[in-house]
């Protein structure tokens, strides 16, 4: 495999905090494995390389169970990776265990999928946000900072004294974002932050996130299974299948000219609104159990274009500007 | 279990299960190891407990005048190995235990195993019918209450089961004795059999069964009559817990979509409740019935004492107050064994009823 | 239902209800009440008592005996027609084996015979030697544990009368399942927890007992009362006493004898307690107790105590001398001794004895002495812990029932006199004791003439009431309650409660 | 009793964690999360306020009544509960509504004073057991690994003894007294709390809010105090309420066997034991029995109501 | 041609006097796939539940509901047992929850067939195999012996559809049958339903909140809000030119097409809580076009074009809403 770290941002932002040369978040050949008595070893992430630059939004899409969350949690340091490295601003991310998280890593934050579970139901909003503020802050400064953060996510300052159950899902997700901002992050990993929300709240939260990233010049890895949503906000999009990234490309290019048959199938499966009813295209089969991944190209059993080369695993190779694909069809010369 | 697809067009099929035997064997091996560890823990705790007590078995088992004679005391202590250091006594006990020898009871002078063989059936004769009754009634009534959730009958059941939970077992025993024996005279007093009957030849150790096997119908009927009150009390105690549990388990199941789906298919209520609800509600019931059985055994201590029932509960009580170490250890080991075996059965049954569960 | 009509079953089953713990039916080991009752029916002894008359041992296996003047040698002449249950003849060998085995087993009952050695002169003559003079040897030889076993059979089953019998004898297991005696009954079945069944010995040498089958069943007191209230058959209850007798149908027969006393023991060792070792305190407690009230708690035939010898035995003080409460005297005694608000822990076994919860009595005592300004803190202990603490001699004040080791009042002296068994655990040494008490005790033991001994006993008791750490409070009786049709159901204060073989129908 | 009864259902069977349901197939998770939360918002239990449920109100009244009785015992009791009187075993009458016992003591007064023992002792037992079990459960759940394993085996060990027999043995071993009875009951009842708290902690350990706090640089100890503890004690507190009734029962059982508070204390179980010697004096046992029954019933109903409210999961019953 | 299902001013009040559905008028013709759309909590599922008498105990239903000439609201217990499964059947949102986890699929697939169709055990089994074939499940024989957990979500939903189709119902109610599934799997289910309509003339009442799905599958759509029908009409026309501000708002909030910050337009405010609906139009507090009139009385749906009704009196005057 020859992952090529692709750096750069479509929208210019402030320089990355760490090493100015490399990307802000650099995931290199990451693997995550679960061992369960029932299924044996499950390789949920099987060697993924991906990087996100400052001010850049990278979307990560894929079917359920393909390892998106596992990747996110390992990237942020919630689980120890089985192999590979994650670098944030140039320094390796240490998994959060017994020790307190090093201050330098607090700039890497995460927004979780379920807004109902990601806020402590028994603590006031203000206290939870204050977790991320420097310990030396005086009471007054602290209050001020909390209302600033709440204001940023469009919630009133009086929110600080309330408890999470007093808010709707969309509001909670905004509060969770405010809490993440308390760590003054330069990079946010958002794992399906709007999946649990109503269409209308979805729009609110997504708008907020995108605005913040642009305003604060942060980087964001935005994970979702909703292609249309990712298309709307991401600068680049990575497509994951069964623990591997099969294609990365600038979003519009990915939509207009997908290089991987799987990407194509995913896009075709999205129902669209049109005057005449038009059924989305069907991709046969479903994601295999990662505990039992097919040999060679993992997509081979479902691929309409599979041929004999597919018995070998295709590497992720760059094809043009900031785009890579892992498919023998593309690597054998042709692009697109 | 997630299925695997190889055929592009074929969708998927249930993946072949990996061979199950090794899983089961591993599971059993682990459980047996845990059980052994548990039993060992029981011996340690009991031994320690008995030895922190001021006074030893000699005081409990020799007459007062004999205690004044050092020679007699020394002879006794030597006979039971009480003159050895405690760790040696313990090692000795373990060694015998490995050979299946539980030692000799100081209060009955018989091998503890013999005592257990005698007392356990008497207790089972109480516990098993109580458990079965409690299970049947508990499941039926609990299910009824769940189905009629919120209505008057549900409230009645709820209050009734709370009452059952709140009644002191020894008091209930006295009350039923007072009512049915003293006032009404419809039931026999205590014991397992009226004196005019000789205990039937021992096959199972349970008088009802043995008498029936021997064709002694009058004795069998008499034994059944003696069972009624204590079984009633034990059932009352257990059924309350079960009803509560079944009720809430069934309530939870009733909210599941698959019950709505079953109705939506046009199945009659009888089928939905009897097949779909019962099947799913039974899983938690099995869990709790394992615990309920353990508590039932525990409940027999008081009940047996009041009804003069010569079972394990009385034996345990006398062993504890007489500081009869081998007997206490024997009873504790037995109960711990029952506890683990029941739990094991519960887990196995679980796997049998619920296909989603694998032994791991 | 309960009681049943034994008459219809051939008229031959006698039911005896008792709450029992029977550890052994081997005469060499037996010592609990129920065991004694059963062993008495299965094993003949050299001598015996009939009914409730404890004045003089009567012939049993021995047709006659002679005691030497120094009370050290006793010669017994055996009857020649006695046979064991299996048909073997009973000879002097069996007697010698049985008595020596009993002594050498060093089990609970061995203590009483530790002083004795049996030898035979011929096949039907046995001589028992006492190492220390003891005029009560004939009485001891009425006790069930001196029952004569079939020596040949018991030896076959591992029995021995050797000096090392305590270690090597292994016949107990056999004897717990099979009787090897010459008594009117044989053991049919024994279930340590529920019942013990006797059947008539077809080869019994004496008069055939009336009942061919006897069931002793384990039953708590409550149920005994209820069962007896309804019984229609031949049935006895052994544990009904005191208050439990109230409300029983008038048709039932009762037979009783006051053979137990309940007493407080106050430690005389100042190291254990400054308070209890103060004689004035003891006397104050003695004066503060409401003896009639305590006796009433036992109900039935119980009576306030006069001394330590229960009325069932010759040598008891007359009822007219019963102690009585005198609070003014108690307060005076305390004041004179300069004891203000004394407080003592009273330890007692938390058991129910003869239908009375000892805690109730202790509470009553606590209430009584409080009126005199004495504070008692109750300290109930499980029986084992109580016995252990008592044995240690470190208990300041304790309360327990006491009965005689064997049915001679003088045996109490062996136990209660300064420096002896009970006294030793009470810190009452000869040095601490009043000279007169010591002398009076000696006199009891040395007097061989029964009438004179009884007078000496009474004098000794009067002195105990003034100078001892014992406060006897009440006498209580053992009672046999029998269904109306029975005859011969007499309470025997002799250790075996009732002579089963003597029970018949009217 | 009971209850070993008393074991909880959060951990179905003693010796081992229940065989895992293979729910790793999480394809259908997304909408589920939304649904279940909606459901919780809508509520599925009796969501009426406590004071609108007649049963709960009645039980609360009973309990408050008993607490008043305990507090005001000297004012309420017509006689000194320890005062002996020569007229014994008087059946219920105007002068002695509940009759008198074998020492002529007024049973009503003793029942009244009994509340001063049973209710506070039950509270102490449960509080101690909750404290001991809570701390151990918290440690086991948070530290995991062999600490957890060892603690769980220890709870198994306690569970493997029938509660009453173990309590009897402990109480007999150290001699009957109030302190030892409390000790014995704490020893047999702490594992339930340890298990409940442990499993609650295990749940919280997987919660995103804990992760979020750790990601913000909160140290493990602070997280334990702020995030784990407050979210784990809920079930245990609910359980404790339910266990109060059980503690009253167990204490009475020990007393009944002569292993509880020493005489002449007016303890209900011991009073029943006195009456049990003679069924014909039914009033001696019946009234203290009814006292136990009402107190325990009130505790149980309240615990039940509290459980339904606080934690719908616990509506499972035990 | 008379409609297969027709609801006229159906109202549902939940226990505790919580009105949740108001005056829902709706019809489904034979062989037609009709959609119901709306935000979460708008009463879509309750409408479906009312059609099968699966409402929470103590709910009250008003108005009329006729199915194949029969008055549903007048049915007795036996009548409902007859209609359920054989007349109207249902597919639930979450196939994992809707299949009994402890009964083999064969059992769940045949038990109601034997009852409704009076089939013998073997006949029912034969039909079950046929059905599984129809919903494109490979190896039906083996599937019959398997349990739900042995299948993926998509397969489970196919099984659930097979169960719903077993007694040849005339109407299938599908309550968000694809919400729990991945887009790729969803496409398969949509294709299946569409094929079934073509092959066996199945009528479907399809509930979803995904407008894209509606567009792909249904011929007509009802848009629900706060238990009321806001707008109805042929799906294509309705979605391309909405005549109700709510429909327009729904369309605006969903991602559509090319990138750009602010391309998503959230609906301001939050949905109505049942029982606390404002007077007048329930959408009025969130509506950008609301006038004072909107707060007086709930507007009646009025015709706004070919086969279209809108409950917004202002709508016809607005040019383009989307
Ligand atoms: N803690 C765990 N233990 C065992 N297996 C796990 C664990 N977490 C995830 N897996 C497995 O790893 C694989 C990837 O899971 P992951 O949650 O990363 O997927 P995902 O892409 O985030 O899916 P979704 O879209 O459903 O969130 C799945 O097969 C899942 O079953
Ligand atoms: N059992 C119930 N008890 C009380 N209220 C209920 C109940 N079921 C539903 N509701 C309420 O009725 C309203 C309509 O619910 P319904 O389930 O029909 O919505 P829906 O449109 O299907 O939403 P979703 O998209 O979330 O499935 C909701 O506000 C809900 O809170
Ligand atoms: Mg995920
Ligand atoms: Mg719905």
TrEMBL record, chain A:
Q: Which Pfam families match?
A: ABC_tran, oligo_HPY
Question: InterPro entries given for it?
Answer: AAA+_ATPase (IPR003593), ABC_transp_ATP-bind (IPR050319), ABC_transporter-like_ATP-bd (IPR003439), ABC_transporter-like_CS (IPR017871), Oligopep_ABC_C (IPR013563), P-loop_NTPase (IPR027417)
Q: Which residues form the ABC transporter domain?
A: 25-267
GO BP annotations listed: peptide transport; transmembrane transport
Single GO MF annotation: ATP binding
Q: Which PROSITE patterns match?
A: ABC_TRANSPORTER_1, ABC_TRANSPORTER_2
Alphabetically sorted, this entry's keywords are:
ATP-binding, Nucleotide-binding, Transport
- Spell out the residue ranges making up region: Disordered: 1-22
Please give the superkingdom of this protein's source: Bacteria
Family membership noted in the UniProt record: Belongs to the ABC transporter superfamily.
Extract the PANTHER family matched here.
D,D-DIPEPTIDE TRANSPORT ATP-BINDING PROTEIN DDPF-RELATED, TRANSPORT ATP-BINDING PROTEIN
Protein name as annotated? ABC transporter ATP-binding protein
The lineage is:
Bacteria, Bacillati, Actinomycetota, Actinomycetes, Micromonosporales
Automatic annotation (TrEMBL), chain B:
Broad class of where this protein is predominantly found: membrane
Q: What terms describe the molecular function in GO for this protein?
A: dipeptide transmembrane transporter activity
Keywords linked to the UniProt accession: Cell membrane, Membrane, Transmembrane, Transmembrane helix, Transport
Q: How does it sit in the membrane?
A: Multi-pass membrane protein
Record's Gene3D superfamilies? MetI-like
The record ties this protein, via InterPro entries, to:
BPD_transp_1_N (IPR045621), MetI-like (IPR000515), MetI-like_sf (IPR035906)
Tell where it localizes.
Answer: Cell membrane
Q: Which residues form the ABC transmembrane type-1 domain?
A: 120-350
Q: Does the keyword Amino-acid biosynthesis apply?
A: no
What Gene Ontology terms describe where this protein resides (cellular component)? plasma membrane
For this protein, the record's Pfam families field holds: BPD_transp_1, BPD_transp_1_N
TM region positions: 32-53, 126-147, 159-184, 227-246, 280-307, 327-353
Q: Check the record and name the PANTHER family matching this protein.
A: DIPEPTIDE TRANSPORT SYSTEM PERMEASE PROTEIN DPPB-RELATED (PTHR43163)
- Belongs to which family? Belongs to the binding-protein-dependent transport system permease family.
Q: What is this protein called?
A: Peptide ABC transporter permease
Tell me which species this is from.
Answer: Actinocatenispora thailandica
Automatic annotation (TrEMBL), chain D:
Keyword tRNA-binding applies: no
Q: Which residues form the ABC transmembrane type-1 domain?
A: 115-303
The listed locations are:
Cell membrane
Single GO cellular component annotation?
A: plasma membrane
Q: One Pfam family name from the record? A: BPD_transp_1
Q: Which CDD domains match?
A: TM_PBP2
Main localization, broad class: membrane
Listed under GO biological process in this entry are: transmembrane transport
Keyword list (alphabetical) reads: Cell membrane, Membrane, Transmembrane, Transmembrane helix, Transport
The yes or no answer to whether the keyword Ligase is present is no
**Which parts of this chain are annotated as the region Disordered?**
1-25
Annotated membrane topology is:
Multi-pass membrane protein
UniProt lists the family membership as follows:
Belongs to the binding-protein-dependent transport system permease family.
Q: Which PANTHER family match?
A: D,D-DIPEPTIDE TRANSPORT SYSTEM PERMEASE PROTEIN DDPC-RELATED, OLIGOPEPTIDE TRANSPORT SYSTEM PERMEASE PROTEIN APPC
Protein name as it appears in the record: Peptide ABC transporter permease
Top-down, what is the taxonomic lineage of the species of origin?
A: Bacteria, Bacillati, Actinomycetota, Actinomycetes, Micromonosporales
From TrEMBL, chain E:
Which UniProt keywords are present, listed alphabetically? Answer: ATP-binding, Cell membrane, Membrane, Nucleotide-binding, Transport
Q: Name one Pfam family in it.
A: oligo_HPY
Domain of life assignment? Bacteria
**GO CC annotation terms, alphabetical:** plasma membrane
Recorded hits in InterPro entries, A to Z, give: AAA+_ATPase, ABC_Ni/Peptide_Import, ABC_transporter-like_ATP-bd, ABC_transporter-like_CS, Oligopep_ABC_C, P-loop_NTPase
Q: Where in the cell is it found?
A: Cell membrane
Limits of the ABC transporter domain: 5-251
Membrane topology for this entry? Peripheral membrane protein
Q: Which GO terms describe its molecular function?
A: ATP binding; ATP hydrolysis activity
What are the GO BP annotations of this UniProt entry? peptide transport
Q: Indicate the principal place this protein occupies in or around the cell.
A: membrane
Family to which this protein belongs: Belongs to the ABC transporter superfamily.
The entry's protein name is: ABC transporter ATP-binding protein
